Amino acid sequence: MAPDDREARSPVEWEAAVLAVRDETPTVKTFRFERPDVPFTFRPGQYMAVRIGGVDDPRGDSRTFSISSSPSDLDGISVTTRLGPSPFKQRLFRLEAGEDVNLWGPFGSFVLEPNHPAVLLGGGIGVTPFRSMIRFAAVERRDQVIVLLYSSRTSEEVVYRREFEDLARTWPNFRPMLCVSRPEESKEPWPGRTGHVDAALVREGLAGLRHPVCYICGPPGMVQGLHAILAREIRLPPGQIRTESFTGY
């Protein structure tokens, strides 16, 4: 059983070996690292810092990433990210199993609350903290309803697509509503919804839920737009909206 996700977490710093690198999409990889050899827990949705020694990058040799694994995944701790042009990202994507990195965390308050229906609104790589939340709630077999509203550019870039579809078939409390904004650019046929996460999809996702908490994660412009929909059009109280913005690096 995973620890109570309401407990406080103290950051830990440790040297960790890369255990595995997995392709999620043509441009996205998951990196699984060793956990520290001291007691370590985190709340679903938190993030940590990854430092790679020897990287010559104007912004330094470390970046922060949402933890994409669940606190209940005791075989390692993972981050999932998209390839970018920075020297750091280029070196990260060349990591192989057995190499060492420095990890520091957890941090952040963008965390899953256990006592309300959760509506997760994301785009692109902003789905990563949601995967941690979803996996944790599924392992706990909570009564909590979780609705995922998630948009990617093409069908090939829907991160965790198979995992989410498989989980929805075995855990009825999870409702993924996936959409693709540029199906005409997809190499694989896309049979599902098209477009972005917009007001109509948000209303559909919220239908029938009492006192939901909405979590928005993705590029700053998307986060601002969805926050405006929730606050101004749907008039959701401020206390029921959580946001996390990802900038490119």
Task: List the main descriptive attributes of the protein structure presented here.
249 residues; alpha/beta; Elongation Factor Tu (Ef-tu), domain 3; Rossmann fold; 2 domains; six-stranded antiparallel sheet; six-stranded parallel sheet; 12 strands; 31% strand; globular; disordered N terminus
Order of helices and strands: EEEEEHEEHEHEEHEHE
Structural class by SSE content: alpha/beta
Q: Please count the beta strands (DSSP E, at least 2 residues each).
A: 12
- For the record, the count of structural domains works out to 2
Average pLDDT, all residues: 93
User: What profile does the largest beta sheet have?
Assistant: 6 strands, antiparallel
CATH homologous superfamily annotation of the largest domain: Nucleotide-binding domain of ferredoxin-NADP reductase (FNR) module
Spatial separation of the terminal alpha carbons = 36 Å
Radius of gyration: 18 Å
Which fold name is given in CATH as the topology of the largest domain? Rossmann fold
Our count of helices gives 5
Q: Which class of the largest domain in CATH terms?
A: Alpha Beta
Low-pLDDT sequence parts? 1-8
